[in-house]
Amino acid sequence: MKKTDEKYTSYVQILKEELIPAMGCTEPIALAYAAAKAREILGEKPDRVIIEASGSIIKNVKSVIVPNTDSLKGIPAAAVAGIIAGQAEKGLEVISNVNEQQIIEMREFLEKIPVEVHHTDNGITFDIIITEYFKEEYAKVRIANYHTNIVLVEKNHNVIYKKDVEGENEEGLTDRTLLNMESIWDFANTVDIEDVRDIIRCQIDYNTTISEEGLKGDYGANIGSVLLSMEGNDIRTRAKAKAAAGSDARMNGCELPVIINSGSGNQGITCSVPVIEYAKELNSGEEKLYRALVLSNLIAIHQKTGIGRLSAYCGAVCAGAAAGAGIAYLCGGEYKDITHTVVNALAVVSGIVCDGAKASCAAKIAYAVDAGILGYNMYKSGQQFYAGDGIVTKGADETIKNVGRLGKQGMKQTNEEIISIMVGKKC
After folding, report:
1. How far is CA 21 from the centre of its chain?
2. b vs e for 97-108, b when ≥16 Cβ sit within 10 Å of the residue's Cβ?
3. CA-based max dimension of the chain
């Protein structure tokens, strides 16, 4: 692909937009970001807070520990962290600088100040509205469709900033529909490494560091450590275990940042750490690793484009299939190997549901990575799933479209049922 090609510029920009740093699970961090911005606009510490959140936000925040809070969980905790210690200008690293006194203030705030949480349904899967009050004054901030997309800033009935929300379109971002498997393959093989060096270098450094921390520490259910003790230390197990360990740490309060993919740190870890681990094993060299990570990241984004940011479809599945493609590339795979790896992996694990961010995400990541590796080894052994085998159809892009339809439309009611179960509603 030539640098003058429209897709070349777009693909570089998509990587820049998606591969950004975040501390902690991105949905609670988005809440903290909105809350910090509202506090900034209000100019005072609020004496009352109202949080309106879509069901998928409630699902993804309910069970995960908010970093830099001394193990606080849940929607009120995420918002209060942003109110007390948030620096809105830092985006998804909004609560990266927190001191002990601020943690004490968070607990006091939660004990003394009313924080109401309401389930809102404005037809948007990703929707956060935070209104903070001080006496007779208020400030309101709304985020819609993706984690840093502020669409409304209002103070005392005065609209400071407003962006129209047109369904679930991601206004302001590069068009992801330009992605397809053949062009991603072309781009990964021809991209000038200097155009992506800084982005990919950060992903390697950040995500490797948190995966190593996950293996050293005691986080969640310690899936990474369990895998190594259960299956040994071969490359396939290490690839799964290190990815799982990154999630172990991230879902359970680790204060290290990650480079995300498709709005998710877990997906960023999943589509990068196994590829990095295989590159070490194979002595692939820097350039080949960078190209493999470009391939893996863009394939993950391509799959998520049809599904959307949040769904009942587990995003680790997409990232695991993409990691399989990156590993196939490192092993000398050609275009057919890459596409069949993705299709085979999707055929195996597309039934995994997302029931929010929590410790068990690490185990789902391990199985998704395993399916990606299996998908490649199947094709290398002359085996594959064929069109008509369930949701599999002819061509990787068409199968990815089917997955998008399944994740966005088919699992809508599943998502609502999961949310009802998680918040304790009876049928």
Report:
1. 11
2. ebeeebbebbee
3. 70
| Three-state secondary structure readout of 41-77 | HHCCCCCEEEEEECHHHHHHHCCCECCCCCCCECHHH
Q: What is the pLDDT of residue 427?
A: 39
Residue 251: how many CA atoms within 13 Å on its side-chain side?
Answer: 29
Quote the tokens at residue 120.
Answer: 């809102």
Give the sign of the dihedral formed by CA 30, CA 33, CA 35, CA 37.
negative
Q: Which helix (H) or strand (E) holds 279?
A: helix 273-282
Sign, CA torsion 269/263/323/316: positive
Tokens linked to 191: 């991209």
* Gap between the Cα atoms of 55 and 76, Å rounded: 15
The sheet carrying 115-119 orders its strands as 115-119, 48-53, 127-134, 137-144, 150-155, 158-162
SS3 (DSSP) at 169: coil
The residues with which 361 forms a beta bridge, in sequence order, are none
Which residue pairs, CB below 8 angstroms and at least 24 apart, start in 234-241?
A: 235/277, 235/278, 235/281, 236/370, 236/373, 238/277, 238/281, 239/273, 239/274, 239/277, 239/278, 239/323, 239/327, 239/369, 239/373, 240/274, 240/365, 240/366, 240/369, 240/370, 240/373, 241/215, 241/366
CA distance 400 to 388: 14
Tell me which long-range contacts 198-204 makes (C-beta under 8 A, separation of at least 24). Answer: 199/15, 199/16, 199/19, 199/259, 200/19, 200/290, 200/293, 200/294, 202/19, 202/21, 202/259, 203/19, 203/259, 203/268, 203/272, 203/293, 203/297, 204/272, 204/276, 204/289, 204/293
pLDDT digits (tens, 9 = 90+) for 332-349: 999 999 999 999 999 999
Q: What are the tens digits of pLDDT across the range 225-274? A: 999 999 999 999 999 999 999 999 999 989 899 999 999 999 999 999 99
Q: Are 146 and 33 in contact (CB under 8 A)?
A: no
How far is the C-alpha of 89 from the C-alpha of 95, rounded, in Å? 11
Contacts of 234 (CB under 8 A, 6+ apart): none
